[in-house]
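Here is one such protein, fold included:

. . .
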Amino acid sequence: MTDPRRIGSAASIANRARYWWAQALALGLIAIAPIEMISRRAENARASLFRDGLNDVDHDRIEHGYYERLVTPTTSPVVASPPPAARRDFDSGPLCDDAADLREYVLKPGFQFGFPQVSWRTNDRGMRDRDYPEQNPPRTLRIGLAGDSIAAGWAVNLEDSFEAVWERELDERLRNEHGSGVEVLNFAVPGHGPIARVVQIEKVASTFDLDLIVFESTPADLDWDARRLRVPLSRGIGFDHDILRDLFVLRGIEPGWEPDRYRAALKPLGPALLERSYRAIADFAHQRRAACAVVILPRVGRFDEQKNAPLMASLARSAGVDAVADLTSAFDDLDPDELAVGPGDYHPNELGHKVIAESLLAADDLDTALALALDRARRRDVAKAGEFVADEPPAQTTPRADEMNGAPGRLD
């Protein structure tokens, strides 16, 4: 693993450039958000971009995340003002399209722009990834990645994201060991909470024949949906979704409330909402005879959040996923200043993404899901070749798939 102490001042300069890029991109997201989705805090946060050092506005932004601004109602318009060097790029077009469901917004398909340090492009399905045919190539394991800004590679180039590094390394490993290539399809959208990630998979990934779905999570997910859901719920959106319907009936949560009332009602339900998201993604995968894994990633500098990981892992296992990998200790012995895209920011830079990718490759807990996925991919290839394959019923989410099928598999 690269020693971050060797990076020196060059990394600090690059990190600062990427920090400004991340801020500008966040402002681009704000610029196209509906007026009622933009917080008054955004105006103060933009002013802070032109001052050095952390102040109260910076700490507030960091605590609530870049995207809190996108989901806080206001009655007055706020016009984004990116730094002058970036303004021309953002005037060229919006980054996102509105979504009339629990996602609120999605990445605009076929969009591309760049800065000196980082480029951003989406494919024709609004994924920050290359284009993929719906049909799987032969002898290829297909993995779908659901996630937030970290999984989307916020403020790093696509080829430097942990998803791309993991894909390259895993592809080489499985080709050498099993004769099977790997494609990782990235469905992550910055700012999406757990339930939005589920909806994104339901809406976008359903046309692909995936062998494994990896659901990226961070400790922030335990209360993220309490913040994210308050706006779509205040518009009457989402009450009929399977994740929410019976829980809302049980708790007396009804349409027609103000956003802050929804947030107060949802705040104590954070673990329940997260467990239901894990269960929904496991059900989606198992209904398609695919495997499902949850990976819990760290946020840079948030060492105190690791205490939440055991609860999250327990929720994921009870939801019936095939594997859970707790990687929240991946940054423990490294300097946060050398891993973050900017001062005090929790998003990893290229080195941080490399550390995450290496942790994924070394995670024995993922072997169960990868073994199940490899078996599925082989069966699909055999079936396409016209050979006989005994039909099997879809895996069930309860009990867990590894308990139902015997001892956990490994990639030996």
Remarks:
- The chain has one domain: 96-404.
- The CA atoms of residues 247 and 371 lie 34 Å apart.
- Confidence is low (pLDDT under 50) at residues 1-10, 30-93, 388-410.
- The domain at 96-404 is CATH 3.40.50.1110 (Rossmann fold).
